[in-house]
């Protein structure tokens, strides 16, 4: 079975303005080497032939990713084959919009999408794959990526908005890079949710993001209006495509199916930790985004946290009930959910829901169905908030 090319924009969004808050870049093969200083050209991320096959490597020979897979499931002819066929694709086989600005904008125009938020593939959804090389190369790889993203944003006429990767193994370095990226015009940061599982440049275990040690970064994000984005699978701890989630008796496709679904709940863990850490009491204007994780689990999680908070704690640790922080500090994104969608959005909070497609990944919303019709009883004003208005405010995107 092959899913056919996308429909016209009129049948997708019924004239509503749309900002797609989760899409991905298939990084061009020359993205790092074209920007690297001479002494690092052989060490930055690049495609080489390893054991007779093309593969992405860093530091000369360390594999990062599956071969030279562009992680795009949409082919040049606009079709999307199912399953894991995408792992065998090469860059020349997939839709040019996965990697090129001009073709990405044409794709958006076909759909009627005004702007997109962009996340990486190669270095991991939270930049975690850069962890296994020396600090200097790690930092340079992040900085070159961010430089390329600032150029992409400018080239797109401020329609593509990549989120900055941070050197999360170095708190002060993260602060400096967040400031540098804000100065370049980037509108948010993307960070590993579990730095406490790794060590800093001196070999000391890093503090969790709720620690006051991270307050300087949260102050910069608040002052510069940078949302803090947590994409599913953004750390080694939170990504498990084919490992422990599924029973060993399952075949590869069933393992991938279950692993992919369970990644959504990994972000529930991240959001719950952030709420209970007290970071929102210290930084009441800080904004967190749970990316590519859906919205249906949010009401249950908040109710469960409230219940456990008063059943388990003998002394309150927060200024408010846990559930109250979501409305003021958190956002969540949906794409495939349709069952009772309008009511779920109300339960989460109309002002706290964002729309995404996950283009061009295997489970992306492609072709786009009647998403606006599925929210019909929300009313035009609230539908517009969900499809673009909330994102405009959050990411400071001008109409």
UniProtKB/TrEMBL annotation:
Q: Which Gene Ontology molecular function entries are recorded, alphabetically?
A: carboxy-lyase activity; hydrolase activity
**Entry's InterPro entries?**
ACMSD (IPR032465), Amidohydro-rel (IPR006680), Metal_Hydrolase (IPR032466)
GO BP term (any one): secondary metabolic process
Does the record carry Lyase as a key word?
yes
Q: Using the record's annotation, list all stretches that form the Amidohydrolase-related domain.
A: 95-397
Q: Which GO terms describe its cellular component?
A: cytoplasm
Tell me where on the tree of life, at the top rank, the source sits. Answer: Bacteria
* Entry keyword set: Hydrolase, Lyase
Question: By what name is this protein known?
Answer: Amidohydrolase
């Amino acid at each position: 079975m092959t899913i056919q090319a996308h429909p016209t924009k009129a049948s997708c969004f019924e004239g509503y303005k749309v900002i797609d808050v989760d899409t991905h870049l298939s990084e061009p093969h020359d993205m790092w080497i074209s920007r690297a200083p001479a002494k690092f050209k052989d060490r930055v991320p690049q495609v080489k032939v390893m054991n007779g096959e093309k593969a992405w490597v860093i530091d000369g020979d360390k594999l990062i990713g599956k071969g030279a897979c562009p992680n795009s499931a949409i082919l040049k002819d606009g079709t999307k084959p199912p399953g894991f066929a995408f792992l065998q694709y090469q860059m020349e086989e997939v839709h040019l919009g996965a990697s090129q600005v001009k073709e990405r904008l044409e794709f958006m125009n076909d759909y009627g999408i005004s702007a997109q938020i962009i996340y990486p593939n190669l270095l991991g959804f939270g930049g975690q794959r850069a962890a296994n090389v020396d600090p200097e190369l790690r930092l340079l790889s992040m900085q070159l990526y961010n430089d390329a993203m600032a150029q992409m944003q400018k080239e797109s006429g401020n329609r593509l908005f990549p989120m900055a990767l941070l050197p999360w193994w170095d708190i002060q370095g993260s602060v400096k890079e967040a400031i540098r990226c804000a100065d370049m015009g980037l509108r948010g940061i993307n960070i590993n949710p579990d730095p406490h599982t790794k060590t800093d440049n001196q070999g000391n275990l890093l503090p969790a993001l709720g620690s006051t040690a991270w307050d300087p970064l949260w102050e910069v994000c608040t002052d510069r209006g940078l949302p803090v984005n947590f994409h599913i699978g953004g750390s080694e701890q939170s990504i498990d495509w084919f490992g422990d989630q599924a029973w060993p008796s399952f075949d590869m496709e069933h393992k991938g199916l279950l692993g992919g679904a369970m990644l959504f709940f990994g972000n529930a863990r991240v959001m719950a930790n952030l709420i209970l850490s007290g970071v929102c009491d210290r930084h009441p204007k800080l904004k967190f985004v749970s990316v590519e994780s859906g919205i249906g689990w949010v009401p249950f999680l908040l109710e469960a946290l409230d219940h456990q908070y008063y059943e388990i704690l003998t002394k309150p640790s927060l200024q408010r009930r846990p559930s109250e922080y979501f409305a003021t500090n958190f956002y969540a994104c949906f794409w495939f959910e349709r069952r009772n969608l309008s009511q779920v959005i109300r339960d989460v909070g109309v002002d706290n829901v964002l729309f995404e497609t996950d283009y061009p990944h295997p489970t992306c919303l492609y072709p786009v169905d009647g998403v606006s019709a599925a929210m019909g009883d929300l009313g035009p004003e609230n539908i517009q908030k969900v499809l673009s208005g909330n994102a405009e405010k959050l990411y400071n995107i001008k109409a």
